[in-house]
Design a protein that fits this description.
Length: about 375
Amino acid sequence: MSATAAGGPSTSSGRRPTRAVVDAVGWSSVLLPAIPLAVLLDVLGAGPALLFFVAAAGVVPTAAVIGRATEELADRAGPGIGGLINVTFGNAPEIIISLFALNSGLQEVVKASLIGSILSNVLLVLGSAMLVGGLGRERQRFDRTATSAQSLMLLLAVAALVMPAIFELVRGAHLPGVHAERVHLDASVQHLSVAVALVLMVTYGLGLVFSLKTHRDLFNPPAAGATDDEDDDGSWSVRTAVLVLAGAGLTVAGLSEILVSSISDAAKSIGLSEFFIAMIVVAIVGNAAEHWVAVTVARKGKMDLAVGIAIGSSTQIALFAVPVVVLASFVIGPAPMPFVLNGFELGATAIAVLVAAHVTANGESTWFEGVQLLAVYVVLALTFGFA
């Protein structure tokens, strides 16, 4: 029985930041020791492969903390401002890692990690959720209208993201190579990338108005929400959420610096390309907390939420994180980064988004559809590994 139920004072809203962090990380608490261990290994000059994977492991619980703190602030700020908070901080680990990679001149790693995040969400996360959630059930159903709106937004975003590459191909230029770190492109494609980034950010802003204001009931049906008791039982104070978010942000920044500084040497020592590590390893690490949540809620039969996490997170990456990084490249790093994808990124993104849109079009899923999505992801990962 809780203290409140027993007649004692409630302390949930004043929960200490340290206790809040432990509660937020959940299953990933086993990886918390990786955070100080990564710092220690960096100071001691440990091997790059060990350093990279320990730092990557440390990002996982930190991402979970950022996700929980963001949700708490969004709940207390209301739907409008809450949506902006979710956009700003929801993909913070991916954005922070990208900014450090930009500063190191690893522009192709940046693009690969962002595209890898989209692929992992629409194939790995959605596939795992459909598989685990569908076991023991004939089928699971979810809101087809809301999912179609999100899928269409993602499809339009991807169409915009691939246009700079098509622009280069039509002009007779070459796409970036898989093993390149930075490719010099002329000013015209740089300006095109900026224009596309601005269009995407405006589109996402209007998407927030659509989903959080004019059509709020469509995306937030009363039945899908938590009860008042669930909201009150374990909520954080604004002060706690801000302190935890600030601390987690600084932690991710430190781990990202270690991660990025070791990625090149780690790739060489384990015999994998930077492209593969960015597309698969870094992308999965940055989204690990969301992956787990989506699979967990799908198993509980909440497929609307699971699909929303997978498609919604991909949409945030495409419409918010990518434009932010493109614009930031004009002030961070050795040169601006036109968002021109290489051939593998171009093909994989188109395939993944089209397949995911098709699978979610009928508003229901089975475990075998999850297997098929996972199979597509494995095939893409194998291709990247041999590239």
